Amino acid sequence: MSETYYQSLPDSTGDKFRTVQKTVSSQNVQEEVVIADMDMKRLITGKYILSTGIINGSATNPYNYASIFNPAGSGKIAVVRKWYPICWAAAAAVYIELATYRVSAASAGTQITTITKKDSADATASLVVRHTNVTATLVSGNKVHSLLSAGAIAQTPFIGNALIFDPLQEIILRENEGLVLRQEAVGDADFRIAVLMEWDEFTGEPRL
Question: What pTM was estimated for this model as a whole?
Answer without folding.
Answer: 0.77
